[in-house]
């Protein structure tokens, strides 16, 4: 099966508070290697792994929850979703550049092509979309 015929692929894993961030980064990088475009876009892979780290950290620190991570490639965008048990809004980014925490959402703004939060009865899911450099942006309408 060639890459052109691949419609969608995805992976899911839960990460407990104990050791989950490092395990999540390693798990994400291992699965990302199976996507052919990652060889040509190492900076996108690094941005995805950093986002995975930040989202799992937010789930552990702010929600006091394990993190359920789902990565799904739909031939246009890699969706990275982390679900936690806190139904509140994600913490607002810190405006203090010297602060060592509280910048996860600010990083996501800079790294992801788009992101959103969906609330469910059992918590929330934050999903970021990453488009490889040689793919058109599915969120843009019209011509460039």
UniProtKB/TrEMBL annotation:
Pfam families found in the cross-reference section: HATPase_c_2
Region feature Disordered, mapped onto this chain: 82-104
GO function terms (MF aspect): protein serine/threonine kinase activity
Boundaries of every Histidine kinase/HSP90-like ATPase domain copy: 41-129
The keyword Hydrolase appears for this protein: no
Origin: domain of life: Bacteria
Entries under CDD domains matching the protein: HATPase_RsbW-like
Keywords carried by this UniProt record: Kinase, Serine/threonine-protein kinase, Transferase
Record InterPro entries: Anti-sigma-factor_SerPK, HATPase_C_sf, HATPase_dom
Protein name in the entry: Anti-sigma regulatory factor (Ser/Thr protein kinase)
Naturally occurring in which organism (per UniProt): Actinacidiphila cocklensis
